[in-house]
Design brief:
The protein is an alpha/beta fold. The protein folds into two domains: 156 residues, GTP cyclohydrolase II (Rossmann fold, 3-Layer(aba) Sandwich), CATH 3.40.50.10990; 26 residues, no CATH class. It is 32% helix and 23% strand. It contains seven helices and seven strands. The protein has a seven-stranded mixed sheet, with helices on both faces. The structure holds zinc ion. Zinc ion binds next to loops.
């Protein structure tokens, strides 16, 4: 039992994971709702020196098939490259495909987008809210593993707030910007304009208040 009275997130297995970006340690955790969490870490993780962290949600179409409809694979790759360069950091990989609606509904949403809807309109037409993802287990895992303060690699203000709400200190926000392509530019613009994400077509940071470091309590 952890200090907040909730069950510990149990580690089920771990192994060494050599990759193009260096030697990582891969762990599998049993989180709530019966879903497994994957972490890929390098270096000493616990401690008060803020850890570079990306909390990344699964995207089968981009990460496995190389789809250009979104920017998930470049974001994942750049996070692992960054950790490899720093020789310290953690990727928390959550199995919540399609902002939490699952693969089948995500493909239904893509079909609606093929007909002209944007990514949010498509979700709404299917009866879903903007974003069903839950980052609570990621926050709990960080605290449980002695990682109270992080440098979070994200463009998503909702993810920042979710981790702050868990009690994790966000010492710095490091945007994850990749050049748009003709297939994902509308998707990226929708995330920026309607979901508050950090993004600009030039790949430079927009003038956006969330681009500044966010500290707990501010
Ligand atoms: Zn994606």
């Amino acid at each position: 039992m952890s200090s907040d009275g909730r069950e510990r997130i149990e580690e089920l297995a771990n192994c060494r994971l050599p990759t193009a970006h260096g030697d990582f340690r891969l762990s599998i955790w049993q989180a709530s709702k019966g879903v497994e969490i994957v972490t890929v870490g390098m270096g000493k993780l616990a401690g008060n020196n803020p850890l570079f962290v990306r909390v990344h949600s699964q995207c089968f179409t981009s990460e496995v098939l190389g789809s250009l409809r979104c920017d998930c694979r470049p974001q994942l790759d750049s996070a692992l490259e960054k950790i490899g360069g720093l020789q310290r950091g953690l990727l928390i990989y959550l199995q919540q495909e399609g902002r939490g609606i699952g693969l089948t509904n995500k493909i239904r949403a893509y079909a609606l987008q093929d007909g002209g809807a944007d990514t949010l309109e498509a979700n709404h037409l299917l009866g879903f809210e903007d974003d069903l993802r839950d980052f609570t287990d990621a926050g709990r895992l960080l605290l449980q593993e002695g990682i109270p303060s992080i440098r979070l690699n994200t463009n998503n203000p909702r993810k920042i707030q979710a981790l702050v709400d868990c009690g994790v200190e966000i010492a710095e926000v490091i945007p994850s910007l990749s050049p748009p392509n003709p297939h994902n530019s509308r998707y990226l613009e929708t995330k920026a304009l309607r979901m508050g994400h950090l993004f600009s077509p030039s790949g430079e940071l927009p003038a956006h208040p969330r681009a500044e470091s966010t500290h707990k309590g501010e």
